[in-house]
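EI: anyone free to look at a 222-residue chain?
SC: sure, send it
EI:
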Amino acid sequence: MTTQTPGPFRGLFIAFEGGDGAGKSTQAAELAGALESRGLTVLRTREPGGTPIGEKLRSLVLDHGHGHIDAHTEALIFAASRAAHATQVLRPALERGEVVLTDRYVDSSVAYQGAGRHLGTEAVAGINDWATSGLQPDLTVLLDVDPADGRRRRTTGNAAEDRLESEADEFHARIRAAFLALAAARPQKYLVLAADLPVQELAVQILERVAALLALRQGSSA
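SC: here you go
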């Protein structure tokens, strides 16, 4: 059963999703700068992480060297980090009227653990709906990246891959398909863009969509 989100919030909640190497952090930074130049208060955050306990859990689940982590444990670690993030960071910022930009949210768990680890997308979505008390983004920006291109991007300069990034391309292909399926099921809540477009072209398209949402939000509160 889906928990109803208290609200409405005065702020706007944007999630950036996509495979590893898609450029989510770059586009979140571009959007934050553009919105701040318009006088808006913007909170940038990330998952797993965003809180002191979340950052510890991030290290535990992404860094190599912690021994074997089975799929169920992995999914629950991500959900625990997200529960703290939603309660301690996301909801308070939205209640203050800020624009919240998060690098990854629930869709990542649905894609990585639900599809990538074969735990089932509905099961993982249900766990995270409970963990966040039903908090959903106003818009999810999905940067669609081919798994091979994503690996090339994230290993440029001999950068080390984390525990999930280093999984085989077949794992990342399942993740890509899951992200696209989520977007296709609720197209009004997603902006799907090819990650290999020029950075500034992506930034312009994202800002246009977010500006339209802000205008709609401001109009409805007038």
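EI: The first strand starts at residue 12 and ends at 18.
SC: 👍
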